[in-house]
Amino acid sequence: MSDSILVLNAGSSSIKFSVQTPTGADSVRMLAVGQIEGIGTHTHFIAKGADGAVLAETRWPDGTGPVNHDAALHVISEWLDGFLGDARVLAVGHRVVHGGAYYAGPAVITPDVMEKLRELVPLAPLHQPHNLAPIEAVEARYPGVLQVACFDTSFHRGHSFAAEAFAIPYRFYDQGIRRYGFHGLSYEYVTRRLLEVAPEVAHGKVVIAHLGNGASMCAICDGVSVESTMGFTALDGLAMGTRSGQLDPGVLLHLMGSLGMTVPEVTKLLYHESGLKGLSGVSSDMRDLEQSSDPHAAAAIDYFVYAIQKQTGALTAALGGIDALVFTAGIGENSANVRRRVCARLEWLGIELDPEANESGADVISAAGSRTKVLIVRTSEETMIALHVLEAMSEEAMIEEASA
What we know:
Number of domains: 2
């Protein structure tokens, strides 16, 4: 087995991971992927090879499995040691949701970096603490190993003031209350892939729709993010699996004032009980909604599609035109129905879909005569993180060589 990079993506009760080996100065190959979920409750660990074959799987009876992220990482590392054999873990990359205004790119983790990331916890209280939890555990398990934080926000850090600010007193902007944008690792990966799969539009004006349980859209000009549907938090923009998306702030005032809801109650409502799940009363999963005969499920899909169409228009305006529309992530890559319905009312943007290509999930799903190209690009945030780690390893090596 080859020396490898470990990529970790920690949530509140899970850790997703992938094992990737360098294949060149700027390329990696995935060896394995997996997750441990239900930490502290119904814990389930699974690891799969690059071909999807199950390499290992364990289910613990209630309350007998790993109780925290440290213990969960121990399970992953024990399996990884056996999987790698004599090979080494070269470095570890972490997905960290919020880099705030501090980071416009990945950061090698140091005590100073950790201090700054802890300062950002109030900006992403449901994500940031869990993203940071495995970092100390990795240090204990692999002492001295290079660790790199890769941020969902950093790809959007070049936005103009007009795209980034809220129309509230300027002092709040200075305090960090601004539109950050998220899903940046996915957008960065897709943007790089466009250079390979569609070089004729990669340097043009592109709208990318990252449609999954978490959903957002991004306007990109010549490979650079200029606008995103997500703002201060990953709650803004499109409706998602369980998140509300765009909401009149007056609704919050009403919920907390007239209805007397507390901050925790509103948080639970907007993050866990809204979106497709709340609208349909059926499920947060688009596959379930598309198979359901419940009219509320159909209404939820209508809402989702309509929001994407509106945001496509807005993002096109931010770009001053559009050369390509790209679908990615779970729904974007797999739902021919959503893609077809979204594009059906975008003819005014020069979009004409090829029905057969769309149904088959081809890379290019626009018709031959379509003025605007429509593509499906499969995203891989894990690969993007591994590539960033590879770059950091190269920079560290150059620094060591220069100081030798």
